[in-house]
Amino acid sequence: MRIFVPAETRRGENRVALVPDVISKLTRAGLNVAIESGAGVKSGASDHEYAKAGAEITAASDAEKTLSSADLVLSVQPLSPERFSRLQSGAITISFLSPVTGKEQIDAAAKAGVTAFSLELVPRISRAQSMDALTSQALCAGYRAALVAAELSPRFFPLLMTAAGTVTPANVLVLGAGVAGLQAIATARRLGAVVSAYDVRPSSADEVKSMGATFIDLQLEALEGAGGYAREMTEERAARQRELLKPHIAKSHVLITTAAVPGRPAPRLVTADMYSEMAEGSVIVDLAAESGGNVEGSKAGEIVTTGNGIKIWGGKDVPSQLPFHASSLYSRNVVNLLLLMVKDGVATPDFSDEIIAASALTHGGAIREGMVK
Length: 373
Ligand code: NAD
Known about the structure:
This protein is α/β, with parallel strands linked by helices. The chain is 31% helix and 17% strand.
C-alpha cells in the first residue's frame, strides 16, 4: 500500500504529518511512503533526509496525481473537500478533522468512499495514549504559552539575589489545568515563577500541586464530565467564578488561560473588568483565542495592548510555533494509529476495536452512525 503525505497548504501551518525518523517504522510494516517535495522544510526536515529515510519524493506538480492514487493520505490539517473528492474509493485518511467544523470535508470523504479518521476523536484510554495528538499538541502549546509570557513580560520570572538587591519572582496564574495548562505551569515553574492555577475539575488539584504550583480552590460546584473533560457551566456559576477569580488575577503579573470544553466555543473566563486591576506591563496569554477566547479583547494571532498597558497575546496555530517537536510527536501519534490497522502490509480498519470505531468518521460511502451531530 502506498502512503502519500502532501505539503500542508493552510497559512500558518508549519507542521508535517510524518518526520523522517518514523518512515522506517512504516516501510518495515510493508508500506511505501511518498512525500511532496518541501513538505517538511518548515519543521526542519529536507527532501534529502526523507529520501535517506526511504521515502519517495513527489514533485509539487505531481502531488494531485499521487494523491488521487494513494491508499493512505496522512496530513495535519484535513484535506479540502475538493481533494477528498479526488481520492480513490477505499482510501484512508488520517488528520485532525473536527466533526463540528469539518462538515464539508466529512461529506466529501463519505461521498468519495474514503475512510476518514479524526485524531480529535481518538479516545483518551491508556491503550490510545501513544496516538493522542490532542495531548501531544497541547503539550507544545502549553510550553510555548509560558515562554511567550516570559518574553513579553518586562519582569524576571525567577527570584534573583543580586549585588544590587533582590528581585522578587513573577506571579503567574494559569486558568485551565488540563494538558496545556499543566505544561505551562511546569515551564513557568522551571523559569522560577511563583505559579497558581485554577480548574473546574477538582481532580486537577493534585496534578497542579505535583508541579510545585498552588491550586486555587474557589469552593464552587465541580464540573467534571464524561472522559475527564469539563462540563459547560450555568451563567450563575460562571458569574460567581469570575467574581472569586478577580482578586487572584489582580495580583498576577502573568495570566495564562487554556480552558476548553469539547465541542463548544471556549468559555469566557476573564472579562476586561477582571484584568483592569492588573499592574501595568502585565501579560495575558490566551491559548483559546482561536476558538472564541477565554479572555475579553483577545485576538487570535495578535498582541492587543489595553489602555492600562496590559498586553494580551492571542494564540493562533500555537503548536505550529514549535514545528520540529510538534511534528515529531504528531508523526508518532499518526504512525501508532495507522499501525494499529496494518497487517502484512495492508491497512484494514477493524471496527470492533474501540479506538478505530471511535475515530473513523466515514466508511463505505457514508458518515458512520452517530459520528456527526
Ligand atoms: P481541554 O483542552 O478540553 O480543556 C483544558 C482545561 O480547561 C481542562 O482541564 C478543563 O477542565 C478546563 N476548563 C474548562 N472550562 C473551564 C472553566 N470554565 N474554568 C476553568 N477551567 C476550565 O482538556 P485537556 O487538556 O484535553 O484534558 C482534559 C482531561 O483529559 C484532563 O483530565 C486530562 O488529564 C485528561 N486526559 C487524559 C488522557 C488519557 O487518559 N489518555 C490524555 C489526555 C488528557
